[in-house]
Write a structure and sequence with these properties.
46% helix, mainly alpha
Length: 71
């Protein structure tokens, strides 16, 4: 004879190994991604020439800036 409510004694599957497996897959995926990017790349300093407006290169100072520098 089957007793009602007998299902509560069924053992659940442990979750620990599933979590460890998911973390392992995440770490392996990160390592594959990092390897595909080529690792650490050396950086080089890049110096760019900035084109200045013609008024700034002529050396003539006109406008409100000249009034402040005289005082």
């Amino acid at each position: 004879m089957v007793i009602l409510g007998q299902n509560y004694q069924q053992r659940r599957r442990p979750v620990g190994p599933l979590i460890l497996g998911a973390l392992l897959l995440l770490v392996i995926g990160f390592l594959v991604f990092a390897y595909a990017r080529g690792g650490e790349m050396p950086t080089h300093r890049v110096e760019k020439q900035i084109a200045l407006p013609s008024a700034a290169t002529s050396g003539s100072v006109t406008g409100p800036e000249s009034e402040l520098s005289e005082g």
